[in-house]
C-alpha cells in the first residue's frame, strides 16, 4: 500500500470502537492498538509531531493498516490483548512474567481430593488460583488438612468397590488425618460438607467455618465432652491464626480487584490486590516493558485486562488511582478517602517495593544493565548529546576570605571515583570572590588535563547559579573547550538547573534518579571541600567573630560556613535563613548579635 493509498485508508476509517493493526513493508504486524474512535486514534499517528523517537520510527515503517470494529470498548480491550499475545508485535509492550502459576484443585470424583497442580485439566474439576507462589498454596493446604480430614490416596472410591472390600485403611487413617472412606467409615454426605467448607476457605471466607466450629464446641462442652471440645477449639485457633496473618481490610469491602501502577522511562509495574470478605487473598505485580511512549493509563488498561484474564477474576468492581476505560461490565472506582484510599496506597506501595527489588536484583545479577539504564536516563533528563559516564562537580569554600579552597569531585558510571578527587587552594584571588575563584579552579583543572592528555568529562556541574556558571564558561572559553563539554549550574534549590545561554532553569522530578546522582555529587563536593578546610585552618583561622557569640560552638560555625560560605553572608542573612540551617534558638542569638550592635 503506497502513501496515497495509506492516506485514503485514513480518511475512510470508521469513527467506532475497535482494534487497529500496523504492518511493515514485509507484511509483518508491528503494532496493535485499541481505540474508542478508530478514525481519531489512527489519524493522530500521522498528524501529530511525536516527542518519542521510537514512535517516529514506528510511523515511518507503517505501510498497511488493518482494523477490526467491535461493539464495545471491553471487546476492544480483550481483542487487543489476545492479538498482542498471538503476534507479539515489535512495538507493543511486553508482559514480563508470562509463566505457568500453580492452582489448588478440588477433583471431580467421589470423595474429592484437594491438591496443588500446575496443569489445568478441563474435566469438571474446580481450580482455585492461580497463586503467585507455592508458599501460599502450602500454607492453605496445611490449614485445610489441619482442620478437615481428607483422603490423599488416588483410589477410585466407587460405591461398588468400597462395598466389595477392595481397599484397606492406610496409615493416614490411624494418624487421624483421614476418616477412612475407602472402607465406608465416612459417608459421602459428611465428606462433601467438608468440601463445601474448604471451597469457602479457598474463596477467603472463614466466617462460616468459624461459626460452625464455635457452635460445635459449645454443644460438646455443654455435654461435658471436653476432650472433643478441645480438639474443635484447636481447629478454631488454626483458622483464626491464619485469618490474622491475612491483611484485613474493611469487612464491608468484598469481591473487589485493586490495581495501581508505578512506572519509569522503560518499565511499568502494575500491582493487583484481590479482596474477598474483607481480606486480601492475592497480591501480584506485573512488570511491563515499554516499547513506545505509552502512558500509565494505556499500560494500566492493558495490564488489568491481562491480569483479570489470567487469574479468572469476575469481580464487578475495581479500585484504581485514576479513571480507566474498561467497558460497562465493570464498575470503576477512584477512591479519595478512607479505607478504600488506604487499599490503593497499600497496592501502590507493593508496586514501588517490587520495582526497588527488581533494581536491587539487577544491580547484583547485571550491574552493567543498571549503570546503562541510569546513564541513558541522565542523558535524556539533562538533554545531553552523549551519556555522562564521567562527571566532575566543583564547589567553592572559604571562611571570611581566609584559606579559600575549592573541591572537584569525580563520578564515573554514576559512582564516586575518589582517587580522581582534587583540592584546590585559591592562588590568584584576594578575598571571598566566588566567581573569580570558580574561574581560576576550572581553568587550572582542565589546563592540567589537556597538558597531561587525560580524558575530559562528558559533563561539568557547577555548584552555584548563573554567576558561577558564567565564570566557569569563561575558563572553558579561554581553553578552547566551550561547546565541547556539557556544563550546567545548580542553584541553591537543588531542583533548579541552569544551562549556558538559557535564562529558564530546568526542573527535575524530585524522585528521579538523575536528581539523586546530582545530589550525591553536590553532597560529596561539600563534604570534600569542608574536610579540606578543617585540615588547613588553624585555631586562629576559626577565631572569627562568630566564636565570640555566646552559645555558638565550632560545630555550628562549620554548619553555617558550609551553607553561607562566608561570615559576611552570615551577618547579612535573615532570621528565617539562619533558622533553616541551625534552628530557632541559635539563629536568634546570631541575628541579635549582628543586628543589635
From TrEMBL:
Residues 272-476 form the UvrC family homology region profile domain. It is found in: Cytoplasm. InterPro entries: GIY-YIG_endonuc (IPR000305), GIY-YIG_endonuc_sf (IPR035901), GIY-YIG_UvrC_Cho (IPR047296), RuvA_2-like (IPR010994), UVR_dom_sf (IPR036876), UvrABC_protein_C (IPR050066), UvrC (IPR004791), UvrC_RNase_H_dom (IPR001162). Coiled coil: none annotated. GO terms for cellular component: cytoplasm; excinuclease repair complex. One of its GO terms (biological process) is nucleotide-excision repair. Gene3D superfamilies: 5' to 3' exonuclease, C-terminal subdomain, GIY-YIG endonuclease, UvrC, RNAse H endonuclease domain. GO terms for molecular function: DNA binding; excinuclease ABC activity. Residues 15-93 form the GIY-YIG domain. Keywords: Cytoplasm, DNA damage, DNA excision, DNA repair, Excision nuclease, SOS response. It comes from the Bacteria. Belongs to the UvrC family. The UvrABC repair system catalyzes the recognition and processing of DNA lesions. UvrC both incises the 5' and 3' sides of the lesion. The N-terminal half is responsible for the 3' incision and the C-terminal half is responsible for the 5' incision. NCBIfam families: uvrC. Interacts with UvrB in an incision complex. This is UvrABC system protein C.
Amino acid at each position: 500500500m503506497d502513501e496515497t493509498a495509506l492516506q485514503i485508508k485514513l480518511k475512510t476509517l470508521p469513527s467506532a470502537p475497535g482494534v487497529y493493526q500496523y504492518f511493515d513493508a514485509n507484511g509483518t504486524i508491528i503494532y496493535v492498538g485499541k481505540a474508542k474512535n478508530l478514525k481519531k486514534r489512527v489519524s493522530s499517528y500521522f498528524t501529530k509531531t511525536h516527542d518519542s523517537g521510537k514512535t517516529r520510527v514506528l510511523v515511518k515503517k507503517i505501510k498497511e493498516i488493518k482494523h477490526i470494529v467491535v461493539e464495545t470498548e471491553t471487546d476492544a480491550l480483550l481483542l487487543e490483548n489476545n492479538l498482542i499475545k498471538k503476534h507479539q508485535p515489535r512495538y507493543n509492550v511486553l508482559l514480563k512474567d508470562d509463566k505457568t502459576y500453580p492452582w489448588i484443585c478440588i477433583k471431580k470424583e467421589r470423595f474429592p481430593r484437594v491438591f496443588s497442580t500446575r496443569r489445568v485439566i478441563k474435566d469438571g474439576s474446580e481450580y482455585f488460583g492461580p497463586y503467585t507462589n507455592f508458599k501460599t498454596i502450602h500454607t492453605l493446604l496445611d490449614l485445610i488438612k489441619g482442620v478437615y480430614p481428607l483422603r490423599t490416596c488416588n483410589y477410585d472410591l466407587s460405591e461398588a468397590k468400597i462395598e466389595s472390600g477392595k481397599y484397606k485403611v492406610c496409615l493416614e487413617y490411624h494418624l487421624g488425618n483421614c476418616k477412612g472412606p475407602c472402607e465406608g467409615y465416612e459417608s459421602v454426605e459428611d465428606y462433601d460438607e467438608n468440601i463445601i467448607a474448604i471451597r469457602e476457605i479457598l474463596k477467603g471466607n472463614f466466617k462460616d467455618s468459624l461459626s460452625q466450629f464455635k457452635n460445635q464446641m459449645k454443644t460438646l462442652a455443654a455435654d461435658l465432652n471436653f476432650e472433643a471440645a478441645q480438639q474443635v477449639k484447636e481447629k478454631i485457633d488454626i483458622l483464626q491464626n491464619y485469618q490474622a496473618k491475612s491483611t484485613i481490610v474493611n469487612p464491608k469491602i468484598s469481591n473487589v480487584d485493586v490495581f495501581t501502577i508505578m512506572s519509569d522511562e522503560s518499565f511499568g509495574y502494575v500491582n493487583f490486590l484481590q479482596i474477598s470478605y474483607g481480606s486480601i487473598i492475592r497480591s501480584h505485580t506485573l512488570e511491563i516493558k515499554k516499547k513506545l511512549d505509552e502512558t500509565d493509563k494505556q499500560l494500566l488498561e492493558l495490564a488489568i485486562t491481562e491480569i483479570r484474564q489470567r487469574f479468572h477474576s469476575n469481580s464487578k468492581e475495581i479500585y484504581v488511582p485514576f479513571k480507566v476505560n474498561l467497558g460497562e461490565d465493570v464498575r470503576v472506582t477512584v477512591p479519595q478517602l478512607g479505607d478504600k484510599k488506604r487499599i490503593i496506597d497499600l497496592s501502590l506501595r507493593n508496586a514501588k517495593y517490587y520495582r526497588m527489588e527488581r533494581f536491587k536484583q539487577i544491580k547484583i545479577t547485571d550491574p552493567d544493565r543498571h549503570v546503562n539504564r541510569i546513564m541513558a536516563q541522565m542523558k535524556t533528563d539533562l538533554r545531553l548529546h552523549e551519556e555522562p559516564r564521567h562527571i566532575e562537580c566543583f564547589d567553592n569554600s572559604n571562611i571570611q576570605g581566609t584559606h579559600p579552597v575549592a573541591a572537584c569531585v569525580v563520578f564515573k558510571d554514576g559512582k564516586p571515583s575518589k582517587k580522581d578527587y582534587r583540592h584546590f587552594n585559591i592562588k590568584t584571588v584576594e578575598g571571598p570572590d566566588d566567581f573569580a575563584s570558580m574561574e581560576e579552579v576550572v581553568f587550572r583543572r582542565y589546563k592540567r588535563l589537556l597538558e597531561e592528555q587525560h580524558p575530559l568529562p562528558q559533563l561539568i556541574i557547577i555548584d552555584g547559579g548563573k554567576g558561577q556558571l558564567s565564570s566557569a564558561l569563561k575558563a572553558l572559553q579561554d581553553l578552547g573547550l566551550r561547546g565541547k563539554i556539557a556544563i550546567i549550574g545548580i542553584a541553591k534549590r537543588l531542583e533548579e538547573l541552569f544551562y549556558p545561554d538559557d535564562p529558564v532553569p530546568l526542573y527535575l522530578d524530585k524522585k528521579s534518579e538523575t536528581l539523586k546522582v546530582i545530589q550525591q555529587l553536590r553532597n560529596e563536593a561539600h563534604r570534600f571541600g569542608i574536610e579540606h578546610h578543617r585540615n588547613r585552618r588553624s585555631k586562629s583561622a576559626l577565631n572569627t567573630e562568630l566564636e565570640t557569640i555566646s552559645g555558638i560552638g565550632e560545630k555550628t560555625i562549620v554548619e553555617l560556613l558550609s551553607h553561607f560560605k562566608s561570615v559576611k553572608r552570615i551577618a547579612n542573612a535573615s532570621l528565617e535563613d539562619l533558622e533553616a540551617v541551625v534552628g530557632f534558638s541559635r539563629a536568634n542569638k546570631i541575628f541579635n548579635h549582628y543586628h543589635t550592635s
